[in-house]
From TrEMBL:
Residues 8-125 form the Co-chaperone DjlA N-terminal domain. It comes from the Bacteria. Transmembrane segments: none annotated. It comes from Sinorhizobium fredii (strain USDA 257). Signal peptide: none annotated. This is Co-chaperone DjlA N-terminal domain-containing protein.
């Protein structure tokens, strides 16, 4: 397994994984990642200039053999449990940013939920909140 990630890096990895899962990173998704990094308290002290570098590292990790499984495990090991729900919420935000949830995104959300041991009711509440925020 590769070197561990910082808490900030792990959260960025989650967003990049979600953005990349459909093999394209939309402008809406990229803008959303930047906005979340600037706005959320979970990213206090994070050097925003590292965002692109971390995104590239994540993409390289995902391209490696068993990349998704290894990356999910790196995220789980790097985050304190109190940020598991935060990671899931960030993944949902990125999935909802372009107002289309694809099959691949749903599957990644399931994998993330299972890897982090989150209960389905909590995840449903997070998902419902995102739907309400992005509704036109």
């Amino acid at each position: 397994m590769s070197a561990s990630l910082s808490q900030h890096e792990a959260l960025v990895y989650v967003m990049v994984m979600m953005s990349a899962v459909d093999r394209s990173m939309s402008d809406d998704e990229f803008a959303r990642i930047g906005g979340l990094v600037r706005f959320l308290p979970a990213f206090d002290g994070f050097d925003e200039d590292r965002l692109i570098h971390i995104g590239r590292e994540c993409a390289a990790q995902l391209a490696a053999p068993e990349g998704l499984d290894v990356t999910l495990e790196m995220v789980r090991e790097s985050l304190p449990q109190r940020h598991y729900e935060t990671a899931y919420a960030l993944a949902v935000e990125i999935a909802a940013a372009d107002q289309r949830i694809r099959t691949e995104e749903i599957r990644l959300l399931q994998l993330l939920r299972d890897r982090l041991g989150l209960d389905k009711l909590t995840c449903a509440a997070i998902e419902r909140g995102a739907l309400a925020r992005f509704r036109r």
